[in-house]
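ligand=glutamic acid
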Amino acid sequence: MTERIKPARVRFAPSPTGRTHLGSGRTALYNYLLARQTGGQFILRIEDTDQKRYVEGAEEELMQGLRWLGMEWDEGPDVGGEYGPYRQTERREIYAKYARQLVEQGYAYYCFCAAKEDDGEQEDLKGKRQQHRDVCLDRDVDLTEADQKVAGGTPHVIRFRMPSEGTITVTDAVRGDITVENSTLDDTILVRSDGLPVYHLAVVIDDHLMKITHAIRTSEWLPTFPLHGHIYAAFGWEEPMWIHPSIFLKPDGKGKMSKRDSEALMEAGIPIFLSDFGKFGYLPEAVVNWAALIGWSYDDKTEEFSMAELIEKFSIEKLSPAPAALNFTKLDHFNGVYIRSLSVEDLAARLKPFFESAGYDVGNEEKLLRVVRVLQVRLGKLTEAPEMGGFFFEEDVSPAPESLIGKKMDAASSLEMARALEVLVGEFPDFSMDTMNQPLRDFAKEMGVKVGNVFGFLRDALTAQRVSPPIFETMEIIGREKVMERIAKGIDLLEKML
Ligand code: GLU
């Protein structure tokens, strides 16, 4: 449990610039856990001031992703709240007022040269930092003169007036104090020529006005963290507690995940964007549990945590700064664990869409529940269900004729065995293990065939699959009529092979 028991006001502040990555899901999760643990608020703020990178539909996708994981926000663009608006492009006037305050107090200045270029964060960071600071001569222009130019319509940006001497110390709850020389920092652009602020200014103003107490955000912002400290100091505002969790590494642990790595994973059927996990057959419970442990741990043994347990046990103190390799095998493990922990009814409801999109009619609820009961112990991902259990819903199955031939047997001897088996199975009063197991073994002995070949024929003829749920349960679900039909079809196929 985090020491600060004061209700935390936290925010998840994504930019709608593309699909929502797992990393964002984890950032949101940590924020959410802290809010719920302390009885505070979880706020969704859309940081859309970079209009060039805006992607239509991204906002909807991310909202769906958060809700799929089980996180509802208390304040946000769609649900409103006391501190709105929660979409940054709707807060333009607020930023303008505070930017002007910085200019008037000498902490920022109008720059008339950068506006001619393609301004913005990208331009701003362009390799200049190491050699010399990115500053502008307009820094020394008198404000009255600059105001005239602005009033006259000269394109301009607003830059932070970075002190050229001294140091600044900012504190990250995970890494401790970070101190840098001001002389290594730029006069970063705070407001672009389109009048919209860049992230660095907007985040400070919004976090302050929205009374954010803890800011958990991606560690990609660590390099510009000192600038944020300067902006806070310029306004004279108290900073939230800053928390930058670990970065994600590729599954092999060799380096950061690039866009191309993500694409390669996707091609291999491994999801990396929030909205794909469900489609790929993962349960939100598993993703939440897995994601929480990428960079956080409770102790060195407990691994399984429901959302409720995470809310109880999460703590900032246990976040690790060490980069974490994405272990998808572990995700698969959690997925199996959660699949098995669901009630049969719940699992059936979740599997239904997968059967349906594979073209199976699973309208018979009672049958679906029986099928799900036998699949539950075997499923790794929901997507496997149609392949593993689709045959239960087929009118008819089509085994490959060769598969019906027993090991070290030929078509004739297999046929002889199958015919006798048909008679025996037809005589069983039911298909339970108790009824069938021993007689089938005795039958194999009498026929002089391996028991595996008896079961093998049944499995292939009934399911047309090499792997299937246990045969007795399978037969009970398929039902006598279809069992006999499928055995007869198997016999037919063997006859044709003679
Ligand atoms: N919009 C920023 C991003 O998507 C948010 C960072 C923050 O949480 O402050 O990286």
